[in-house]
Amino acid sequence: MTLTISASEYAQLHQQKTKHYNKNLFLEEFETIYEKPKCLLQGGFTRRLELIPGILLDIFNWNYQNEMILKVPVHPHPIQFLFLSSGFIDYENIYPTFGGKRSYLSGSGISPSYLEKYRRSQYISGINIHIEPHKLTELFPDLLETQSQFGKLFLKQDELKTSFFPEVTPLMGKIVQQIINAPFHGVTKKIYLQGKVLELLALQFEAITTDQNQLKSLSKLKPQTINRIYHAQDILHHTYYNPPSVIELAQTVGISDRTLQRGFRQLFDTTIIGYITFLRIFQAEKLLRLGNTTVAEVANAIGYSHLGHFAAAFKRQFGITPSECLAGKIFKG
């Protein structure tokens, strides 16, 4: 039996904080326990610790009885890194399987929609860390003050986020276990975990920098070419409703159309046409949520002349039709 559930339904099942939990678990003042609903799995819980405002650490143990598919819609995304001590999480098309020797590191920005699959009769444990972009720049202002590649890759807003899948080294695995089994309590534990989380983030940044398999596409592009591709991206953000052709865009930024198309896919993991579609649909959702408009007016405003094509593209991204969005319906995932 496979259970398919939307992200909104999943969130509703988790709204109620657990009041009854294993009394052997010691809870810190900055810690909350969320028990997984029994309709989703045999047992399990997530320990959520707010290390500082803007940095959340989840330590989880889940035991899935049946296969589950979670439908996640397009959504704003913080900086995130995930390590699984046991088990695997599968994805359809967009990501590789997480677990084993593969971890996950994502910058902030907009996440595309995806299907997240949990296998039957599987025990999953690990840690999941979320960092708000403003907190990272508070801690490391150089990310904003310099033209570092990290700043461009990890600090995005209304753009598709960048994801990496660093190999889990023995040192990373050791730190994950130190986080799960932190030997302190109170403020000492909070300070200890803050340090371990930042150490783990540093190791993942280092893995990305040194692993040519992670950056092989970027390493083939000259810095000047990368800057011109980012310029092309900026142009699309201002002209998505009536964008230039690929040839015109390439001429504007001073590179060949072939280099632009190849580099755009390497930097943003999508085609130029795919990126324009993303920008249009993302803007359409904002306009529809504001109300005081019609679906046809929104379609025309973002550059769609065919209402059916607009509706189909919108539903692919958000799981609901433009009319349902205008009426205030939440995403199905």
From TrEMBL:
Provenance organism: Hyella patelloides LEGE 07179
SMART domains: HTH_ARAC (SM00342)
The HTH araC/xylS-type domain, residue ranges: 230-328
PANTHER family per UniProt: REGULATORY PROTEIN PCHR
Keywords: DNA-binding, Transcription, Transcription regulation
InterPro entries: Homeodomain-like_sf, HTH_AraC, HTH_AraC-typ_CS, PchR_regulatory_protein, Tscrpt_reg_AraC-type_HTH
Molecular function as annotated in GO: DNA-binding transcription factor activity; sequence-specific DNA binding
Superkingdom of this protein's organism: Bacteria
Keyword rRNA-binding: no
Record protein name field: Transcriptional regulator, AraC family
